Every structure is written in C-alpha cells, then in structure tokens.
C-alpha cells in the first residue's frame, strides 16, 4: 500500500478483495513440487510443509516472507489402494469452492504434479483420475504439471545410435522424439477427459538449466483458468513471466471494470480527467509509480523501488520528453550534447548513458510537475512517458534478476543496471515516438478519442521483452 500523497490506488482495491493467490499443489514426494513453486514464485524455502518426509496437512497455509502474494496448500499424492489422501483433497476442495466462500479463501487453482514415467510406468494413478474428474465436474481450475521432461529427453538421447549422435540433426532428433514420447506416455491417457489442461517442466533440479518458456506457459494456463478477479493477483504473485507482469501493470484499469475506472485513460487524464483535476501532477506520477511497481511484486524488502532515489531516476528520464522542442533550451543550459537522450534524435550509445546522471533534474521540470494537473500536450507526454519508462525499466529489471537464485532479493545494483540498460537501448526511441505523437496539432483529437492509452500499449509492446 502506498503512503500519503497519492490518489486512491486501484491495486489496493483489487488486492483488498483477493490479496493472495491460493494454490493447492498435489503430488507424491519426489515429483518436484517444491522446486516448481520456488522457481515460479521466486521463493527459496521448503514450501511443502512436511511433518515427516512425505507427510503433510492439506489445511496448513504455507506462506513465505519472500513473496507476500502467495498461499500454498500441499496434498500428498495418491498411492494405489490408499484413499484417505484423495478423500481429504476432495473434501478440502469442496469446502474451499463453495459459493458462500469469499474469493480470497477459495482455492484458485490446483496444480497436480506428476513425474513423467521413464520406464513404461503408469502416468496416472486411480486417485489422480478421480481428482481430475471431480475438478472438471465441479469446475475447479486444475492443471496437470508433468515434471522432469528433461530426464525423458536424456533417455531418448541415450537411445540414439552413434551415427545419429554424430549427426548435425542430433538435437533436433532428440527434441522431436521426446515430444513424440511425451504424447504417447502422458497425453494419450488424458484423451478420456474433456479439455483437461496440462503443462510440462524441465531443469528444476539443482544445477540444471530451467526451461523458462515452459514455466511461462504454466503461468499463462493458470491465468486462463482462474476467475476474472484472480487474474491480477496471479500475475502479481508469479515471478517467471515478464509478459504477464507487463500485461498486469498496463491493463489493470482496462481489465477490472468493476473496480471503478474504465480505462488506462484514468492515468492519461483522458477518460476520467475529473479524478486528476485539482491534484498536482507530481501526485499523479507518484500514484502511477505505486500502481505499476505493486503489479511487479519484486522481492524488495528495502523498498528500493518506492523510495525517492528511484523516483528521481524516473524524473531524470521523463524530464526530457516534457517541454516543446522550441522550449527545451530554456529548461536546460546546453542540449546539444544530449539531443538523442531527449528524444529528438533516434539513437543512444552506452557511453552517453551517464549524461542522464550528470545533467541532474531541471529546476524548471520540478517546478512544473508541482503545478496542478491540466490538459496540455506537455502533461500528456509526461504521463505517457512515466508509464512507458517505468514499465519498461521494470521489464529490464525482471530480466536482470530472473537468473538470480530464489528468492532474488532486489539490490540497488540490480536497479541501476536495469535503468542503464533501458537508457542505452530504448529510452530515446520511446521518447521520440511520444514527442511525435503528443503534439499540439493532435492533442484535441487525442483527448476526444482516448487513443493515448492504445499508443502507450503499442509502445510498451514494441520495446518490452518477448
């Protein structure tokens, strides 16, 4: 939650209704449940709460200080001839999916973790099948997560002949044969079920290369299945898909119509200008800052993303896009050495990045943002630039920390590196597009049509990681 000096926060409203994603993980010991949770949600602890190895209480709420947007429940797998665990799981899901249960107390998704059998074993136990049938009948979101796909690929590779191993198509052959085996072993037994969702994972054991693409598909499948009000908290809680983070940060006011605002135009002063009128522009920027950073949910116990130091870095960026071209020289002593940084030019080099810091904040800019918001091309560029710059810096920061072992605690070095990476790669191009778009000639049409929100989305989509 933000401190004082902001407008009402949409993220606060949404998260007040459903502050945490509640996931039930089901699976036998050794299927990789803990590793899966650690990598998807960026935490590092033994999240599966065992009284003894292979023993757990499904009613225990398992949380981690590394990620405050997550609650886990753990269920033991279903051994042949043993029905207690299955009965407990179904009773738990019935209680947690009743219509009179508040959405924050419901189980939002079930991940049924199954290790891919490598020696012709049965992929689904009878208990697994009954749980799937129950979930489909009761419309409980359930995804089968097949784990250790990398071990299947290793076995396929061992079956290659020496000639095939020496072939230039070796990797391609292994990939194709592994995919074929996966269909035969894992997917054909699912054909009896109607539209059950599944995902696969690789490299979750220590020292292995994590298949990030597979984890992103799991996140996307989860978002597709959860209830609409849980979509946002799912994106916030997960820490493996930058795309989901980008979407959550820029679509929060578009997706959640029931929250009281109807479009991103709220921030651009177009669709709901009365909410901005009477507020200093600096207050509007601070509100945007809290909304976007909250959506990314970095492990930031030192609050580095919400302190004044980071905000000053953003101000140092967006100040260049605000004044009209003919007024730039009245804001800065000498603009010639850093025209590219302002957005007049089209390129920026790594050597030029420190100029952002060397110039400092313009007195004119700081005076300007303290004034009450008004509909002007300068204000429009300022709001658009803040949304674009902050979102894209968050995207760079996400990639900066993705390969850091969980819990990926944020450091100032991470932030500085992400800011510089954005400065040297995209900042000038983004600012050039904004300056070309939000000018006096088009401002009236922009206000009438709400096109600015679409331009912001297009810019972010063009420059964010894919």
What this model shows, in words?
The chain crosses the membrane at residues 338-361. This is G domain-containing protein. One of its GO terms (molecular function) is GTP binding. The chain is α/β, with parallel strands linked by helices and 466 residues long. 51% of the residues lie in helices and 8% in strands. It is built from 21 helices and six strands. The protein has a six-stranded mixed beta sheet with strand order 2-3-1-4-5-6, sandwiched between helices. Helix 8 packs antiparallel against helix 9 and helix 12 packs parallel to helix 18. Residues 253-263, 269-274 and 345-354 have low confidence and may be disordered.
The oligomeric state of the chains shown is single chain
Silhouette: globular
First-last Cα distance: 29 Å
Helical residue percent band: 40-55%
| Annotation, overall tally of beta strands | 6
User: How many helices?
Assistant: 21
Q: Which radius of gyration do the C-alpha atoms yield? A: 25 Å
- Please tell me the overall pLDDT: 84
Largest sheet: 6 strands, mixed
Order of helices and strands: HEHEEHEHEHHHEHHHHHHHHHHHHHH
Strand order, biggest sheet?
2-3-1-4-5-6
Keywords: Membrane, Transmembrane, Transmembrane helix
Protein name: G domain-containing protein
Domain G: 22-147
Pfam families: MMR_HSR1
